[in-house]
Design brief:
Strand order of the largest sheet: 1-2
Strand content: under 5%
Number of helices: 6
Radius of gyration: 30 Å
Length: 162
Amino acid sequence: MNMTIHTRGRNGFSFVEAIFTIAIIGIMSSLVVSAISNASRDAHRVMARQQQASVQSALTAWVMAQTRVGSTSQVRSLESVRTTYNALGTTSARFNLLVPNPASADLNLRAGFLDQTTADHFLDYTTGTERMKTAALDNAKQYLALPIWQSGDFPRVDLVNE
């Protein structure tokens, strides 16, 4: 009695194993793509916050410079400075207070409160009068607004989501 057992040799993966492997690779690749896209968006948002802080710092410097009357020891009230600021009806008009103005007789206004490169970057990306934008703000789907300066408060720069 000769009994031969035939075993079938395995050559490669079964269909179920191949589908399972492809599914795992697909899930892992979607996690990697998601992490990369979140990192890019987070980087743009960090840069947008830094730009907001830069404009806020320039706005604060402008207010402090406006409280002095020329090179005298006289001081203007914050109420007077607030009236001047609020008389400019748009965000872009208020932003222009911070931009260097070479034609101005006032040294502070001539030098500006933002550097020219930063000001130019904002002006290049801004299309309306109420939304100040840059490349980073545009990518983060955000913009800066300079709202009316409320009494009893200090002027602020708002970072707004679109």
